Amino acid sequence: MQAGAIAQDQDSLTTVLPGSRPWGRRFAAMSPSVLLAALAFAVPTDCGAQEWARKMFTETSHNFGTVARGSKTEHRFTFRNIYKEDIHISGVRTSCGCTSPVVTKDLLKTHDTAEVVATFNTRTFLGQHGATLTVTIDKPYYAEVQLRVDGNIRSDVSFEPPFIDLGNVDLGKGAQQTVQVMRTGSSPWQITDVRSANPMFEVTLSKPQRTATQTVYDLTLALKPEAEPGYINGELILVTNDPRAEQIPMDVEGRVVAAVTVSPQLLAMGVVRPGETVTKNLVVRANRAFRVVDVACGDACVSCKVPDREAAVQILPVTFTAGDTVGRIEREVRVATSLGPDVVPSVLLQVTVEPSSAQADANPQPEEAEAAELAIPPAEARADNSR
User: Rounded to an integer, what distance in angstroms lies between the CA atom of residue 260 and that of residue 191?
Assistant: First the structure.
């Protein structure tokens, strides 16, 4: 019988809880309403049982504020598996068509991260809207986590194109793009400032073009050549003289690509036991064909078969062979190529070596240490598993 489940006492034909004394005649003497109230207090609720699932999320609500009609508006809810068990996301649903949710990864091993991407539907919805997003976990135990998004979609303000997409930008060259900001209405409307937290953005705003029914600005964003390689996920904040919407966000996306890139930059090898091996691929890309000269990290446990060819994309199988040392191991992997020294960014290799069965038996751990390890709390897990 699961903890918290309701069992039947066949002798008295009355409802009892596991681990408690049969209430028999006491329950029989209760009125139906009093009996339901007693059971409500006795049976654990899902709120406490699913707290383990909510702990994986860094936040559970977001307000988009006031956004322009047709603009690209999305928010990423990040979550991380902090437990020893694998976590599987079976799906995510929304309470309103104004928001579309997508999960970037449905199976998370220990320390893996993923995102629930909530996209606000600014093309077909106008005004104040909100949605509850329900993330369903089915393994190792059933749980649901609810996320909340809200926002106000202005019908009189729009962008063309709907956001700034810089695309792939070569390292050291910079880039720029122009967006038209349009506001429909006869009353005076002015953009008084444009703000951003990214110091690599420079914004130029044209003088407004006004007609009897519309105000139009040309907004040009320039990405400085000093921008570091990697993804750009930022926004501009348009400050206006409209008291109803003093700040309107505009999304900025792009990627600064180095002459040579390597992925992933964190090579997670997982969990192995002494004597076991695991292999993961590194992918090195360049703007022209090159040859891999060496892959090294100063540890005999790590090896790689170097391809004997020139190519613009090289796939390197990195193998880790576990020795007798147990615990978490981190090593810096360096790739040397014919393109020159220190061209390829270094990669961090992470692996956890668990003791073999013989080692574990020879060195038993106290119960307190086992309880301190990352694991879903047993009481909460049992309650969720009863679903």
Answer: 40
Task: Give the containing element (helix H, strand E) for 28.
Answer: helix 25-29
- How far apart CA 184 and CA 356 sit, in angstroms, is 70
Q: What domains lie within the chain, and their CATH numbers? A: 7-43 (no CATH), 51-155 (2.60.40.10), 166-257 (2.60.40.10), 260-354 (2.60.40.10)
Q: Distance between CA atoms of 340 and 179, rounded to whole angstroms?
A: 40
The overall pTM is greater than 0.70: no
Contact, 315 vs 341, CB < 8 A? no
Instruction: Read off the amino acid at residue 236.
Output: L
Nearest to 256 by CA among 233, 232, 288: 232
Q: 20-33: per-residue pLDDT in tens?
A: 344 444 444 555 55
**DSSP 8-class letter at 340:** B
Q: What percent of the chain has pLDDT over 70?
A: 79
